[in-house]
Amino acid sequence: MTWPKTISKIVLFSPILLLLLLIFASQAQGGNSEEKATVKEFKLELKAGTIPEQDIYWGENSGTIINPRCVDFKLIVQSTEEYQKIIADKLDRSGAKYWILISRASDVAVRKIRDYAEEKKLEFICSKSTLLSLLNKLPEFENTRLSDLEKQFNITKQILTHRPK
Q1: Which of 42, 56, 134, 135 has a CA positioned 20 to 30 A from the CA of residue 148?
Q2: pTM of the predicted structure, to 2 decimals
């Protein structure tokens, strides 16, 4: 195998390597990453339309939300077999096959989020950037670093490593 082919294979499988790294890192930090998702109860008051509908993956967009959670949707999509096929086949965005697979990858990601939310009885999940931006504006979190908010509210790793019962 020549040097350029080796590099191209490494780049091709980098999303898979990233996923494996996330799994092993979370286990090295104390075993079950789902246990780390439990935090004291937090209530978020939202008016209808506060969060754009396309940023909500589970739950309602108004009222009192108990223990909201967030995900990095792009990372979940990239972990799907459909997305890996796009990468492996080097599909171009201008082709129909690309759009079919990316649509399926998105559906699989939403299903993973939904299944996790149902099993863990979560009330609300939205995009990471949206929730962290909202929380950062609240008085109780004004002096909290974004990285700390992410540790408390982001459940992407848990969804990626979750095995449905």
Answers
A1: 56
A2: 0.73
